[in-house]
TrEMBL record:
<keyword id="KW-0694">RNA-binding</keyword>
<dbReference type="GO" id="GO:0031564">
    <property type="term" value="P:transcription antitermination"/>
</dbReference>
<dbReference type="InterPro" id="IPR006027">
    <property type="entry name" value="NusB_RsmB_TIM44"/>
</dbReference>
<keyword id="KW-0805">Transcription regulation</keyword>
<dbReference type="GO" id="GO:0003723">
    <property type="term" value="F:RNA binding"/>
</dbReference>
<dbReference type="GO" id="GO:0005829">
    <property type="term" value="C:cytosol"/>
</dbReference>
<comment type="function">
    <text>Involved in transcription antitermination. Required for transcription of ribosomal RNA (rRNA) genes. Binds specifically to the boxA antiterminator sequence of the ribosomal RNA (rrn) operons.</text>
</comment>
<keyword id="KW-0804">Transcription</keyword>
<dbReference type="InterPro" id="IPR011605">
    <property type="entry name" value="NusB_fam"/>
</dbReference>
<dbReference type="Pfam" id="PF01029">
    <property type="entry name" value="NusB"/>
</dbReference>
<comment type="similarity">
    <text>Belongs to the NusB family.</text>
</comment>
<protein>
    <recommendedName>
        <fullName>Transcription antitermination protein NusB</fullName>
    </recommendedName>
</protein>
<dbReference type="InterPro" id="IPR035926">
    <property type="entry name" value="NusB-like_sf"/>
</dbReference>
<feature type="domain" description="NusB/RsmB/TIM44">
    <location>
        <begin position="6"/>
        <end position="130"/>
    </location>
</feature>
<dbReference type="GO" id="GO:0006353">
    <property type="term" value="P:DNA-templated transcription termination"/>
</dbReference>
<keyword id="KW-0889">Transcription antitermination</keyword>
Amino acid sequence: MKSRTKARCIALQVLYEQDMTSHLPGSIFEERLVDEPLDPSLQEFSRQIIFGVLPITKELDDYIAQHAPEWPLDQVAVIDRNIIRIAMWEFAVQQCTPVKVAINEAIELAKYFGSDSTPRFVNGVLGALANRSNEIHQAFASIVKSKSG
């Protein structure tokens, strides 16, 4: 597994566990690092994903719901939602990863963690969201600013 993929994998595990439990994300992250050590730069990348996604989860989910109307969000598997959230954060919110790379990475995570239909679902939703990446980036710039300030 490529190193940045491994960092995304840990971020996904943390986001998934945090979604399913009341565990603190920082504690979950530290536990994951014991099992899967990462280089400091990859730890930071994983940390940025986790703490970049968490404060804007509701807003990310609103966009996901718009682009997966046949699947009410509460019926989308938790792992699938978190894979899409990570990719969206990378290509639309933070713009730290090219769209195609973020989608390909999300599909790889979907193949590893999801069901047989997850890669196709993730690809379809992210493909639709990618067409609006600049609009999403602008919307989240103000959301992130209002939440941090």
